[in-house]
Design a protein that fits this description.
The complex is a heterodimer of chains A (302) and B (270). Helix content of chain A is 76%, strand content 1%. Chain A is built from 14 helices and two strands; from the N terminus they run H-H-E-E-H-H-H-H-H-H-H-H-H-H-H-H. Chain B has a single domain, classed as MetI-like (MetI-like fold, Orthogonal Bundle). Helices cover 75% and strands 0% of the residues of chain B. Chain B has 13 helices and no strands. Chain B has helices at residues 2-7, 12-35, 54-60, 63-95, 102-108, 111-114, 117-131, 137-162, 165-173, 178-207, 212-215, 222-230, 236-263. Classes of the chains: A mainly alpha (302), B mainly alpha (270). The interface between A and B is large, with 91 and 82 residues.
Chain lengths: 302, 270
């Protein structure tokens, strides 16, 4: 019986494939894409300001509200600025780690580094955010260490800086920035290390033999070859920062971020159309970022 | 070969930067472990004035914590089971086939983890609202299964692609039918990938908060319970204890999964 079924299926590969693919495709196609479509549709609805009911009619009023309120534009720019800053900082911090992992560490040391990067990455997300609250708090771990090194005046000066500062690290954009960089750093290190693993050592030797200084080799050989890794990592750091709403609500300054706005609008405000319109913004920004990265040739070497 | 050795040496600066980066990644995890034992229950004082095991006892006596934990475990189990079935089917269909629209299907299978979780969350919520679904256990599972499918699919497809096609042909030539080939040739080869994908999916679901906050309604999973505790400073020692427990519960399956995935690779442990 099973033999005849399997013989039947083997002869009709297309039918067999669609039989396999149908259930998962239905799930992602209907549940996931369907929901994304519902989201997009809702963003073209609007809320009646008097009855607070959603009017299911096509309108651009919600999008108009999104771009015409200066406060909403501020939120979008603030989130975008944070995502760009976090991506840049993560790339700068990740590079030496990834480079060491890929080029210098061998055998046990390499395994140690890979596990060392992955363990914190897979540690509970919320617990890490909470840990940073302990670290950044007024009498917390960081201020103790800063004090031990006699750097308290420097920290106070940093906190006194307008915009990025605040009453303590745990309630300032500076602190939030540190937490964001920390959270997404492994997502930058791993693809970067994978890209650097593929840079042949002979190229670097050749470059040095031909008289290039280390800086020149880095700029003209290593960096272009590491670009796909940087691009892949930056898609993670950029996209994750744009969508996060837990970190800004646990650690951070008074200003709102896109994610918090989405969460608040659908929850207490009950304005799903505005929440939907806000959540379309990160999708557009990520789309634009991917297009830009592609045009710059970041994925050519993949 | 002396020049080659020198070439492969990192300078002191490079080594320091690498280790500093690694230390930065580990510092907060150790802070959490330390604070679970502190005797101070009001401020975040560092270093802790004394160490105690008392808070473990207090935390484990909290019934609401256990209820949240039970819910999280059953959601993760259900989402993982669904993901194992659907993700494996998809991996088998996509591993070696060529058909029109394959690119689009492949894109669909990365989208749930490529887009930020908040998009999945608000999208599902707006669909549930439109369809007038009651939020609860099954809506949480739906959200989690969506990204768990992707995780299982990725793990299984990576293993299937490393599996020589000739083995399947050999099995068929020797007279095995499709079921036997699957049972005796394919399944033993992908078993560890299934296990690893399942454990990763379980851990991700267990830890998920961004999607869950949208789809949970009045239900409280352990991350939601923990999130609420964060804004209640009086319960701080309990939060600390639960934090360290959650780290252990999620990290052990993930490290096992990592070890299992590496096993199938040429340079992995044997």
């Amino acid at each position: 019986m099973t033999r005849s079924i399997s013989a039947f299926l083997y002869g009709r590969r297309g039918f067999y494939l669609s039989l396999l693919l149908l259930p998962p495709l239905l799930w992602l196609g209907v549940v996931y894409l369907g929901s994304l479509f519902a989201l997009l549709m809702q963003s073209f609805y609007a809320i009646d300001e008097f009855t607070a009911r959603i009017i299911p009619e096509f309108t651009l009023a919600t999008y108009r509200q999104l771009v015409s309120h200066p406060a909403n534009v501020d939120i979008i720019l603030r989130t975008l600025g944070m995502a760009v800053a976090v991506t840049l900082a993560a790339a700068v911090i990740a590079f030496p780690v990834a480079n060491y992992m890929a080029r210098y560490a061998g055998g046990r040391m390499k395994a140690f580094f890979y596990v060392g990067v992955m363990t914190p990455m897979w540690t509970s997300y919320l617990v890490k955010v909470y840990a940073w609250r302990l670290v950044l708090a007024k009498q917390g771990v960081l201020s103790w260490f800063v004090d031990q090194f006699g750097l308290t005046p420097a920290l106070e000066q940093a906190l006194a800086t307008p915009v990025v500062g605040g009453p303590s690290l745990a309630s300032s954009y500076l602190g939030m920035f540190i937490v964001f960089v920390y959270m997404w750093l492994p997502f930058m290190i791993l693809p970067l290390a994978a890209a650097l693993e593929r840079v042949p050592a002979s190229l670097l030797q050749a470059s040095a033999d031909l008289g290039a200084r280390p800086g020149q080799t880095f700029r003209q050989i290593v960096l272009p070859l590491a670009l796909p890794g940087l691009a892949a990592g930056s898609v993670f750091t950029f996209s994750l920062t744009l969508g996060d709403y837990i970190i800004p609500s646990v650690v951070g300054a008074p200003g709102y971020f896109i994610g918090m706005m989405v969460y608040q609008q659908q929850g207490t405000a009950g304005n799903i159309p505005l929440a939907a319109a806000f959540s379309v913004v990160p999708i557009l920004l990520i789309g634009a970022y991917l297009t830009l990265a592609k045009r710059l040739g970041a994925f050519d070497a993949l | 070969m002396r020049s080659d050795r020198d070439w492969n040496r990192a300078s002191l600066g490079q080594r320091l930067a690498a280790f500093a980066g690694l230390a930065f990644l580990h510092l907060p995890v150790w802070v959490i472990v330390l604070y679970a034992f502190t005797t101070e229950d009001r401020t975040y004082q560092f270093p802790p004035p004394g160490l105690t095991l008392h808070w473990f006892e207090v935390a484990f006596a909290r019934e609401d914590m256990w209820a949240a934990l039970r819910l999280s475990l059953s959601v993760a189990a259900m989402a993982t089971a669904m993901a194992l079935v659907l993700g494996t089917l998809a991996a088998f269909a996509l591993a070696r086939s060529r058909f029109r629209g394959r690119e689009a299907v492949t894109l669909l299978f990365v989208l749930p983890i490529a887009l930020p979780g908040i998009i999945t969350g608000i999208a599902l919520l707006s669909a549930f609202k439109l369809a007038d679904f009651q939020l609860g256990f099954w809506t949480i599972v739906t959200g989690h299964a969506t990204f768990c499918i992707v995780i299982v699919h990725n793990n299984v497809i990576a293993r299937l692609r490393r599996l020589p096609q000739s083995w399947i042909e050999a099995s068929m030539d020797l007279g095995a039918d499709g079921t036997q080939t699957f049972r005796y040739v394919l399944l033993p080869q992908i078993a560890t990938a299934l296990l690893a994908g399942g454990m990763l999916a379980f851990a991700l679901s267990f830890d998920e908060i961004i999607v869950t906050l949208f789809t949970a309604g009045h239900e409280r999973t352990l991350p939601i319970w923990f999130f609420n505790e964060l804004f209640r400073p009086r319960e701080r020692p309990i939060t600390n204890v639960v934090a360290v427990t959650v780290v252990l519960v999620t990290l052990i399956p993930i490290l096992l999964a990592y070890w299992l995935t590496r096993q199938g690779e040429p340079d992995g442990p044997k």
